[in-house]
Specification:
By secondary structure, the protein is α+β, with helices and mostly antiparallel strands. The protein has helices at 2-12, 18-25, 27-36, 56-67, 75-81, 123-126, 138-145, 155-167, 173-179, 189-200, 206-216, 261-276, 286-291, 293-306; strands spanning 15-17, 40-43, 46-48, 72-73, 95-100, 104-108, 113-118, 127-130, 133-136, 225-231, 237-244, 249-254, 280-285. The strands form four sheets. The protein has a four-stranded mixed β-sheet. It has a four-stranded mixed β-sheet with strand order 10-11-12-13, sandwiched between helices. It has a three-stranded antiparallel β-sheet with strand order 1-3-2. Strand 11 and strand 12 (249-254) form a beta hairpin. Helix 5 (75-81) crosses helix 7 (138-145), helix 9 (173-179) packs antiparallel against helix 10 (189-200) and helix 11 (206-216) packs across helix 14 (293-306).
């Protein structure tokens, strides 16, 4: 019997539910395992076998085992599982789960776990598998994490996961907005609505947000569009940071003065192919947009003046 218990522990580890083990070997054998095997209690009825470092991944597995069917990883841990870059954010000890039910929070401070219940949550529709774990959809994870992203009052930190998700085309502003009615009590809602409107305007980076505010929204400039998709000659597409369709002038906002190496060669080839379409490309750096918005705007006005508006904009 002891050998059978040890084999089952090894086959079902490292996260083990007591109820599952009792059904397999009986209560007497399970109690023997508790006394003699290297088991670490993680949550009521959930154990780790054998004793080993408790990684974040094992914590997530244990939390799902404790909460039961229909529960999913949510909030910041869900953003991490979806592949967003959270290295600059402090690692929160609290682990958040979401599941269906009356809106309330069940808190287990000893296990550093919070379980949220949402009436709107449907695990069959809103759950995704990420790294082998049930995880809430990206749009919900972004909105749930919004109050947690600005603990030191740095707006750019709070915006960063949203910008990254949209810039990498993991989601869209429209899909995020469609989930917003399910979270009516989010804090800093005004700032969130502003961010979503900027995303809808085509801003996919902090530089584009600054450019929109300091340059492109100025009344001296004609209307422009953000993140415009143009089909390139010989295949492929270009996504333009800002585009003045009537003048066929594109603006690219570079986080550095100019990309280097292969990236620079790619940009040059892209600009040449855009020129074949009659599109003029201007590039501005972060420093220019932030420190010299008037000069950037004036240069843009000069180029627009040299390329009269077309009656048939592309």
């Amino acid at each position: 019997m002891n050998a059978d218990v040890e084999r089952i522990l090894q086959d079902n580890g490292p996260v083990i539910r007591a109820e599952q083990m009792i059904n397999l070997v009986g209560r007497y054998a399970w109690e023997w395992a508790l006394e003699t095997q290297r088991l670490t209690r993680l949550h009521p009825g959930v154990y780790l076998y054998p004793q080993q470092p408790l990684t974040r991944h094992l914590r997530r597995r244990a939390a799902l085992a404790y909460a039961g069917p229909g529960s999913v990883i949510s909030h910041l841990d869900a953003l991490d599982l979806h592949g967003l870059d959270l290295q600059d954010y402090p690692r929160h000890e609290l682990l958040h789960l979401s599941m269906s039910g009356q809106h309330r929070r069940r808190t287990h401070r000893r296990e550093s776990l919070i379980i949220h219940h949402f009436l709107h949550f449907n695990p069959d529709v809103d759950s995704r598998q990420r790294q082998g774990l049930a995880t809430i959809r990206l749009e919900d994870a972004l909105l749930q994490s919004w109050p947690l992203l600005d603990e030191v009052h740095q707006p750019d930190r709070a915006r960063r996961p949203f910008l990254e998700a949209v810039q990498r085309r993991m989601t869209t502003s429209e899909r995020i907005v469609s989930r917003l009615p399910h979270y009516p009590t989010l804090t800093r809602r005004k700032q969130l609505l502003l961010l979503l409107s900027l995303l809808n305007e085509g801003c996919h980076s902090e530089l584009e947000i600054l450019g929109l505010h300091h340059v492109f929204m100025h009344p001296s400039l004609p209307p422009s569009q953000g993140q415009v998709k143009l089909a390139l000659p010989h295949g492929g597409n270009a996504y333009l940071d800002r585009y003045f369709p009537e003048h066929r002038v594109a603006v690219e906002l570079d986080g550095t003065q100019w990309h280097q190496g292969q990236r620079r060669d790619h940009d040059l080839d892209r600009d040449t192919r855009l020129a074949a379409l009659g599109v003029t490309v201007l590039r501005f750096s972060f420093k220019q947009v932030v420190e010299q918005p008037d000069l950037v705007r004036q240069r843009l006005l000069d180029v627009l003046a040299a390329t009269p508006a077309s009656a048939t904009p592309r």
